[in-house]
Specification:
single chain; 192 residues; mainly alpha
């Protein structure tokens, strides 16, 4: 998967959602949200954080199986090129500190790692959607009553999949922002 394909993916998802709405011939009714309770929001984010940890580990294992051998080979090329430079510098301190071989090996390793990151993100997104389809959903946790609308379920699965693909660090940041926001609201309320 190439990052340049992201707009195409977005367009496909958007067209699928619009097609679903058009197929139903009605715009879904507004959804009632639960009463806002800070502890409930933190609880939901904590569960998403925990699930994201599981998804991250699964992605690591899958990517390790698929990509580690190639990365090890490319790292070995970098190490050999670096060792050749170091050996040359021992013989002649004026020898260059870099080489074409090292530059090419490092570039190949960098490109391989960038592709690996794209693959990991894609695998994480797919696993996140599967987890959401299995029932762990972000939006479903904030609505007042279960929503039987397939469009809501699809959007919830996509959003949850994206959140989980982003990893536990992103969810942890959301928790921190929310906690800081609630703390500042409480501080403002005490001063007024």
């Amino acid at each position: 998967m190439n990052i340049k394909n992201a707009p195409v993916l977005f367009l496909i998802v958007l067209l699928a959602a619009l097609g679903l709405v058009a197929f139903k011939l009605t715009v879904p009714a507004a959804i009632a949200l639960k009463t806002f309770e800070p502890q409930a929001v933190l609880g939901l984010l904590t569960w998403l954080f925990t699930v994201a940890l599981f998804v991250e580990r699964a992605v690591e294992v899958i990517v390790m199986i698929l990509r580690d051998a190639g990365a090890d080979g490319l790292q070995a090329r970098v190490d050999v090129a670096q060792a050749q430079i170091e050996a040359a510098q021992k013989l002649d301190p004026a020898a260059p500190i870099t080489s074409q071989a090292l530059a090419e090996a490092a570039a190949a390793l960098g490109a391989y790692r960038a592709t690996t990151k794209e693959i990991a993100l894609f695998v994480g997104f797919v696993l996140g959607i599967l987890v959401a389809l299995a029932g762990v959903r972000a939006l479903g946790g904030i609505v007042a009553a279960p929503v039987a609308d397939p469009l809501f379920t699809a959007v919830d699965a996509l959003i949850t999949g994206a959140l989980l693909a982003g990893g536990s660090e992103g969810i942890h940041q959301m928790m921190n922002v929310f906690s800081n926001f609630m703390t500042s609201l409480a501080a403002k309320a005490k001063t007024t």
